[in-house]
Amino acid sequence: MLPLRPVAASSRLGLLDALRGFALCGILFVNIIDMGGPIAMNRPLAAPSLANPDWQIWAFSHLILTGTMRGLFSILFGVGLLLFLHGGGEEDRLPAMLRRLSLLLLFGVVDATLLLWPGDILVTYALAGAIALCFRHMQPARLLGLAGVVMLLLSIWAALEAPGIRSADMVYSASMLAREESARLGSYGDSLAYMTLVSWIWLKSGFLYIWVGDALMFVLLGMALLKLDWFRGEGRALPLLRIVAICYGGGLALRVLQLLLIWPDGSAPTTLSAFVDQPARLLMTAGHMSLLQSIWRLGKLPGATKILERMGRMPLTLYLGQSLAGACIFAGFGFGYWNGLTWPELWMVAVAILIVEAMFAWFWFLAFTYGPLEWLWRWGTYGRRPALMR
Prior knowledge:
Elements: H1 14-35, H2 53-64, H3 68-85, H4 90-112, H5 122-132, H6 140-161, H7 174-184, H8 188-203, H9 207-227, H10 238-262, H11 271-275, H12 277-298, H13 302-312, H14 315-330, H15 343-364, H16 372-382
Helix pairs in contact: 1-3, 1-12, 1-13, 1-14, 1-15, 2-10, 3-9, 3-12, 4-5, 4-16, 5-9, 6-9, 7-8, 10-12, 13-15
């Protein structure tokens, strides 16, 4: 029997890396808001107004970004599960995958505690990935059908919960804001205790089931798309551009509807806005994915796609690096900018972080084969140290 080995860097699919790099960049523009402000309040403190730059960013993010980068990451995670299992005999690969998911869970715990980011998605992916393995032999049509069932259940759940959420629930009270300010602008120990508590509360609440189901839906979709040979790097771009138009058209229509429904009540959901959230998110995610795939096939923006590809080869390192950067910039033991920047300024911080990460990835891969944490992850997965230097 051949020894179990990691996938060689030369055999990686560049398109998947570019998509992963795109999602990595996009998700920071969503996460930076909670990193730099109240962790559980995804709207500006002021009353809704399109004259307010913070609300302008909120509206744009709601239409284009919110949930879509997480969805794209989840699709690619599903693709990665199957690519890993198809890299050799399943009797060897499946135990290795379970080790890989266990290590991912550990990285997520570190992110949600020591790196002060309760919004971590790695724990969710580890749990959703373990469930998705049960369906790895399903035919694409059944995988798509199962993903649709999960989406319907999530939509019904959200619609049933929506009437109980008031506009006042969307805004921090003065005491809540003061409590979080004291922790996040205090010492590292203060921040660690507060963020760990938030992570634990979210983990043991019903939110965990929603997040795992949310990720599972897209993971199953990614598995189906890989089996349908969706991610070939070659082929005609015109059919994809038609899909882009259809997905963006439908997705934006649903998201504009959502915006009109929730804007008057300060972003509190209605039954209808909650029910269409997942279909809107799915369409927008598919639009983003198809657009970047079209750009890739047409050979447009080769410099930008090459940068995204390199960033996508070290997603774990850069994702955790974003948490570390956020802790250093916003916490009291760092520069102490928590709740002191407008949303446009927070997006400027995100741009600066991404520029640094892009430069790091570019120069790192001049000498090394894997990202630093990706190398460590492979070592734990396969039980022996992979070569790091080129």
